[in-house]
Design goal:
By secondary structure, this protein is of the alpha+beta class. Helices cover 28% and strands 34% of the residues. The chain contains 3 helices and 7 strands. Strand 4 and strand 5 form a beta hairpin. The chain is globular, with a radius of gyration of 12 Å. Belongs to the MoaD family. Pfam families: ThiS (PF02597). Keywords: Nucleotide-binding. This is Molybdopterin synthase sulfur carrier subunit.
Length: 85
């Protein structure tokens, strides 16, 4: 029997505007990486593609690579590029 993996994803700025929420949950039937989360988000929200490809990803307040494997109930934060003045 496959154990379901639930991942909470938090968004900021333009990403939150595209998704329409600050946080959502995504589900997987097998262990998932940050790359799997990004892929699922782009499938659900095609307008998110460019921003998702340019963003950094964090888990537990640490930046991670896209091959980072996520535990069940992990929270992933999509951090879009920012500019300042």
């Amino acid at each position: 029997m496959c154990k379901s993996v639930s991942i909470e994803v938090e968004f900021y700025a333009g990403a939150a505007a595209i998704v329409g929420e600050r946080k959502i949950w995504v589900e997987f039937t097998q262990p998932a990486s940050v790359s799997d989360v990004r892929r699922q988000l782009v499938e659900r929200f095609p307008k998110l593609r460019s921003l998702a490809e340019q963003s950094r990803w964090a888990v537990q307040a640490c930046f991670v690579d896209e091959d980072y494997l996520l535990d069940n109930n992990a929270m992933v934060v999509m951090i879009p590029p920012v500019s300042g003045g």
